[in-house]
Amino acid sequence: MARLCVIAVATLASVSSAKGLDTIESAEAYALSRGVNLAEKEEESEPFGAYRAFNYRAGETLVGIFQFESSKAASSWRKWIAQMPLATGHRIQNGAIVFWASGGADAERLQVVAALEGKTIFRPSSSVKVTKPKTGVLPDSVQGYQDLTWGMPETEVTQQLPDVQATSDGELRRSATVAGIEASIRLGFKNGKLKRVVVGFPFDAAPRGMNRRETIDALTAALAGKYGPGKIDEDSFDTDPSWSNGRTTITLREVMHGVAIVYESVELMAEVEQLPQDGL
Length: 280
Prior knowledge:
By secondary structure, the protein is α+β, with helices and mostly antiparallel strands. The chain has 7 helices and 14 strands.
């Protein structure tokens, strides 16, 4: 009986693969036929512009399956995501389905990718320990924003970024292209030390006519591709995903006219601002 079930799954996957995958269920069957056993299925609440999306784990590799209305829509989305510097991992299109493999050890992830591309059968190592993925956890190496580290004096920041301009509220500001979108970067200081960087993306600057929801979904997907799924506080009305390592916190926030990625120093945000005592 078990053998008949395996044959049925393989037959279903081969038929779907011949015409291209078109549903989450056909993608799951195809993955199984290639030896990729997808575990810990979890629906993606914000499918990043896809019709449906689910997250899984294959060994230590994170696998997302995104279903689109058509093969053309899947191809356009995959090419667009590939242009974003933050979008790490591997994306494999099959019909109206896009697989997104990320995280885990390089060797295992590349085996999963090769299997999903139809080049080989995935055979996971028996030594692989499967653990539930952590959400909202940043690598310890994230200690600031890009080449700027928390606590850096304002004079050093201006030396590294000579194009910044001072604002009336004491911050520094510059424009740049981030993840393929024109952005405004604001740098905040406390007691003369860098404490916060806010990368703002106005909706009217989104490329290729993306709407509000598409912009938010795309940036969420890019951050998740680099750092894993963000953490959302289920005990509050706040649905902004965040990542932290105890020293740095990254939060994706929807604001009135756009969306912002906020990078903050946990230590400096808790530090008390030193004010002059004049007039007290």
